[in-house]
Specification:
mainly alpha; 0% strand
């Protein structure tokens, strides 16, 4: 799950280093705007064939929480 988030975040922001995408940080802290974050989440769900209701996402959700959310819905 973390690898998928890293892959899709770096595809959107090529200057972002995968090693900087750690569970404690939010995608916003890493420089992704709201449209970028939505694209990362959508692409990860498509990549992993997972559906997470939009109501379960929080605006400032750390990457580690995203991983857990995707795992719960897998």
């Amino acid at each position: 799950m973390l690898a998928a988030i890293r892959r899709h975040a770096v595809a959107i922001l090529p200057d972002l280093r995968p090693a900087d995408i750690v569970p404690e940080r939010t995608l916003a802290e890493l420089g992704l705007n709201s449209v970028d974050r939505s694209e990362v989440v959508t692409n990860v769900m498509d990549d992993l064939d997972v559906y997470v209701p939009i109501t379960e996402f929080r605006q400032a959700m750390p990457v580690g929480d995203l991983v857990g959310l995707f795992e719960r819905h897998r």
